[in-house]
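Objective 1.3, modelling of assemblies. Example input:
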Amino acid sequence: MSKILETVPNFSEGRNRETIEAIADCFRGQDGVKLLDYSADKDHNRSVFTVIGEPQALRDAVIQAAGVALERIDLRLHKGQHPRMGAVDVIPFIPIRDCSLEEADQIAREVGQALGQQLGQPVFLYERSATRPNRENLSDIRRGEFEGMAEKMKGEGWAPDFGPPTIHESGGVTAVGARMPLVAYNINLGTDKLEIAQAIARKVRHSNGGLRYVKAMGVMLEDRHQAQVSMNITDYTQSSIYRVFELVKMEAARYGVAVVGSELIGLIPLRALVDSAEYYLQMEGFSMDQVLETRL
Amino acid sequence: MSKILETVPNFSEGRNRETIEAIADCFRGQDGVKLLDYSADKDHNRSVFTVIGEPQALRDAVIQAAGVALERIDLRLHKGQHPRMGAVDVIPFIPIRDCSLEEADQIAREVGQALGQQLGQPVFLYERSATRPNRENLSDIRRGEFEGMAEKMKGEGWAPDFGPPTIHESGGVTAVGARMPLVAYNINLGTDKLEIAQAIARKVRHSNGGLRYVKAMGVMLEDRHQAQVSMNITDYTQSSIYRVFELVKMEAARYGVAVVGSELIGLIPLRALVDSAEYYLQMEGFSMDQVLETRL
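Predicted structure (tokens):
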């Protein structure tokens, strides 16, 4: 398979092993689909699956898994610490290789339509698939949860993108959408003053007027006596890592504080790093096709 | 195939189509071997093949091709502009994926031994496989060419690494060795003074006391009215691109000249770019395993 898409569907079942395995079975032994990981949390009463695959094959497997969830999970009986609104709660699609955000969005819409038409589940498109601004954030859609959703959907602007206009009796509603891979990026400061990291976080994050695709907060690394600006970059192609780094460095300088290091948590798309090299080396006319996958 | 090695063997035949195709046939339709490109030059009377493959399969194909060359090419009749010393003149092995320089060196030695023992061709190990310092550079080995080689090999320190102690009557001698992928990297200066680029080139290159794996010269980009420091980095894992870039910038500053851009010619190993991102972003605890091959 050359085009690779990822999905990380969340289901509102973290206790019944049979149901969790029945969902996992939809992703196992399918041509063009690979179940990378899954885990269930009893307190949250929720399970999360990480699956990659060829876009169409992945789409079909997810639709099948949603069908299993709607058959087996009854939200009227569901209790858990994690907020939730659907038996299959949220299905993000993330482009991984040779695959654009537009293609991920197309698959998200096809899955949304299938859930609505074939399974009678109302679907809200969210993140980069959202059809209106107040549906970009999952938390805005999920507010009110399963119990409040029937009432919420009667209100202005809360008709679903696919499926019936009110909740599925036992399955609630589902959010489906495309998003870019998240980059978890932290910058360590040469200070033990948490308030400086917090002040910098406010300046660089989108919610306070900073970069469009940056979420940030200040945290304290107790064992290192260092304050840290801890960030999520939700679209590294638009809010580049080097720009985030230089902006934090600039704001830190205002307090006479140096940046002592940065760290990337988990996987980082090749392109995100290459963009930074391209910037600092002032590269002209560079193309990603020039990159040879030598990891030596 | 997961481990990938590259070889770029040079043969002293650029005119006889039949011979060139007979060599190419050794690389075509073989399991685990892929002929990426080949070209012949009539003036140089020389052909160059670019082949990648699984190390053992590539080794066997190259030995076979050397056999064909020794059967068909007679250097006593060979005339061409390019210096040469053997029917199969030089065979470099370059690690490309999941393959170390040590593994490339091992294959080079196996090929050298086969040429010596099976084909009666004297072999000098060169570049990173060299068994003494004066054999690292191909030009030192090739000095005297085919016509002077028999005499040269009588001298102190010119016994071959494999094969008989004097030249193959019609096939001369061959250089075989491992090397890192070359990175061709140019830095453009905000000046039209060629002598500044030349002065900087002398400061950064190995031959004049600069970085160990850097070859450099000053050239003039006539259409852009810019002088350029044009470089080959022969081991980007030791002489990193960002260090080369910063050193050139520093030397340019001494003339009040700015760096206006840089360019990478041809393929560039992923790791070479990631190293630069890692440096500038002051990354801590980063591993190449974190890199996801998303080219978006």
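Chain B touches chain A at residues 95-101, 181, 188, 237, 241-242, 245, 259-264, 266-271, 273-274, 276-278, 280-286, 288, 290-296 (CB under 8 Å).
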